[in-house]
Amino acid sequence: MANESHDDLVRLADRLHSASIHLLRGVRRVDAQSGLPPAQLSALSVVVFGGPLSLGALAAAEQVRPPTMTRIVDALEGARLVSRTTDPADARAVLIAATRAGRRLLAEGRRRRVEALAERLRELDAGERAALHAAAPALVRLSGAPLSG
After folding, report:
1. How many angstroms separate the Cα of 139 from the Cα of each of 37, 95, 146?
2. What is the pTM of this model?
């Protein structure tokens, strides 16, 4: 729609913003099954998909102060979901890496979220699902997320 005005794009952005927040809240309800508080689960996700990384980088990614992230990492390490390793580029620095158990816990959580979303998709009619299939590549591109199957 080449003739869309700025106001049209702002209205679309507003609808997408609202829908994405409500959709995320809906599927996020299954996260309680992980047994982790949201802050720990979020930090673990960053480590699994972006790590290993320094405590400072993890704190920046999660937009918290380093002392807060230290407490979160201590809890994750106590649960054996992350480990601290020496940075090969700087022996004085420490990197936070996910353990096999941490990666598994996150994969299980993703599976639960995807299944919860699939249940919600079943509530739509075939035309609505087709529209979402068609829109999915644009939404992925808009999000900046990597393309996947």
Report:
1. 28, 33, 11
2. 0.78
